[in-house]
Structure formats: structure tokens, C-alpha cells
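Worked example

This section walks through a single chain of length 282. The input is the sequence exactly as stored; nothing has been trimmed or padded.
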Amino acid sequence: MTHSKAIQGSGLGLRRDIMSQLASSLPNTVDFMEVAPENWINIGGSLGRDFRALTERYPFVFHGLSLSIGGPEPIDVELVNNIKSLMQQHNVTIYSEHLTYCSDGGHLYDLMPIPFTEEAINYVVKRIQQVQDILEAPLVLENASYYAAPAQEMTEIEFVNQVVANSGCELLLDVNNIYVNAINHGYDPLEFLRQLPGERIRYCHIAGHYDEADDLKVDTHGSNVKAEVWELLHEAYQLFGVFPTLLERDFNFPELSELLQEVAMVKSIQNKFAQRTQPVAS
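Given that input, the structure is written out below as C-alpha cells.
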């Protein structure tokens, strides 16, 4: 089965925990899917065939975990080339990553905050452009959750906007991360949202978080989406029009039917703004 390269509508992150259920039911509430490409490079056998069957059925995007765009070590060119090859094999046109770093003499197994400084902007922009030259396409970067802001010289929104403007990359808007960061760092999530470059949004993530305390939220992707985050998605569509939006769930999986209810909620909200819906071209 062939499909358009464009993604639109409501998506679901594909995890191996739910792969067999998805393969057997092929839900039509899901318009596109997302995987970490690192988990699928050189994967063959029955798992590789199952993955191929899904990429032939649904448009996919890749959301990487280990590029370390802000890291101190050189860009892993072999990794980027392998991801580019995997994109070509599965007709994937979007590769997104996190505006963070995750390596320093080895993998840190966490997404660390890049200092909000002019020096960091210049450094990251050069690395983004190196990746984009290899991909021959824009890199899509996610506004990340963070719990400390070392050596901060500017606000998060100033940092994100300058990186996007200076590098030519695109934005993966994560509304849950905006909400989590706003609570943890004491800013207005709607004001942050309003200042983003809406024309650079390629697609969106929505996810659940853990309420550690009134003033401490943890971005877990392990629970249902909170009402405040759904409201922020409404506001984003109100500001920028409808864009493709994907539900992330990384662990503590409920029944597939419950996940699909949240995907259906995305679609329901999108339908309220249907007059503004524009498919995202590749």
C-alpha cells in the first residue's frame, strides 16, 4: 500500500510493547506513526518485516534519541548517514531530535539542557547545519523539558527562537514540555507559546507527565495527558492553525483502546479547527 509523504492529522508513537496489537488491528484513528530510528537500523527478520508492513501502511516520522546536537563531541556522521539511509528505505521524510545533548565521552542516558547563551547558539547552529547538509533536508528540533538552566544568559524562548532562525531548522512543538517547564521555571505557558515561530512548526507532540508537587512536574510520557496540556493544544491550534499532532507514550502502557481514545481526542480537537487545517508538505 502506498501513501503520501505528507503527514497530517493525529499520530501515535510506535513502541515494541504495542506493536503486535497495532499490527493486528491497524486503527484508522491513527494517521501517522513515529519511531526512534536508532532502534531500527539494521533490524531484520520477523521484526523487520513487521516494521516494513507498518511503514507501508502508515506515513512515519523518525524521532531520534542520540544525536546530541548540543554535545561537546563531534556529530556522529555515521549515525546521521545510517538514519538517512533508513529514511530512504521506508519513505520517511522527517527526522526530528531534541534541542539538548546526551553524550560526553559516552552516552549519558538522559537529555541534558544546553546553556541558554549566545556561544551555545552559535555552536548548535553550526552542528544543525552540518546535519542538514548530510540529510539534504531540514532537521526538526523539539523544545525540550529541563530541570536546571546552567549559565543562563537569556530566556528559553529567546534561545529556541534564535536557534531556529539562525539554523533554518524546523520545530517539533511539544506542548507538554511547555507546560512542564512553565510550572517548574515559573513562566506563563501561553505567553511562551505565543512567541514561537508558528510558520516553522513541522509537527507536534502531546504526552502525559507526573505531578511531583504543585511546583514540580516531571516529563515522563508514562500517563494520560492532563487537562491543562489538552488546553494548551487548543491554544496552539487557535494561534497557528492545525498541524499534525502525535501522542507519545513510552511506558506504563494501558490497553491499546485507551491510547486510541487519546489519539481520537487529538483528532476531535483538530476537527474543531478544521477550516484551518493544512497538510504539512514534505
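What to look for: The chain has one domain: 10-276.
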